[in-house]
Design a protein that fits this description.
Rossmann fold, alpha/beta, seven-stranded mixed sheet
């Protein structure tokens, strides 16, 4: 039975394996320059480093930038606070500006401030990835910068002009760091993947949200 399990997994769940990466890649298609705000040490943009012509990673932690640079994820880096990007990058200077797993670490006011700056810097598209609503998370390994300070919901993002896709399956099946709850883990992981048939198009019930705003030609 074990030798058939990978084939069965691929048949039933293959569509949603690496769903986040696939959905992100689809949204990045046609964007030749990308600003990655809060890039961290292992940004999901690492999956596209061979296809994006020019990217810049922004992070306030030198160790994260050093690790990202060693992995060759971005072409250039800026060691700075995310909330200072408007003073460094001119309006309309990148096709796409992304903040992946960033907004939830900011207060609500700072999150809105960051979104406004991103929308000015982007020429074509803004991409946000965040948990659906507030998800409790404390400091990871003593790192207080991993604490969640805010939550961002589907209705809220749509009102700001973002279209929203559900990621990571049914919200109740995952917890801190998007880890699957329940035992045995392999079983609930498969149930989580299966639930993406629904939550992708009903993001209100998903654990995480991929939010995309496309700039209109007349926008500054």
């Amino acid at each position: 039975m074990k030798k058939y399990l990978p084939k069965l997994d691929n048949f039933f769940f293959g569509r949603f394996k690496d769903h986040y990466v696939k959905a992100l890649g689809k949204e990045l298609d046609g964007c030749t320059s990308v600003l990655d705000v809060g890039c961290g040490s292992a940004s999901p943009l690492r999956h596209f480093k061979g296809t994006i012509e020019y990217s810049v990673g922004v992070d306030s932690f030198r160790s994260s930038i050093d690790q990202s640079r060693a992995a060759g994820i971005h072409h250039e880096y800026a060691l700075m606070n995310a909330l200072d990007i408007s003073g460094r990058f001119p309006n309309g200077s990148f096709d796409c500006v992304v903040a992946l797993d960033v907004l939830e670490h900011l207060t609500k006011d700072d999150g809105h401030k960051l979104l406004r700056m991103m929308e000015r810097i982007a020429r074509k598209k803004i991409i946000i990835f965040a948990p659906n609503g507030f998800v409790e998370q404390g400091g990871i390994n003593g790192n207080l910068d991993q604490v969640h300070l805010s939550g961002w919901g589907v209705g809220e993002m749509r009102r700001m002009g973002y279209r929203v896709t559900g990621i990571n399956g049914w919200k109740l099946l995952r917890g801190e760091l998007a880890r699957v709850r329940g035992w045995p883990g392999d079983f609930w992981w498969r149930i989580s993947l299966l639930s993406e048939y629904i939550t992708t198009h009903c993001p209100e019930h998903a654990f995480a949200l991929l939010c995309v705003k496309e700039k209109r030609a007349e926008e500054p």
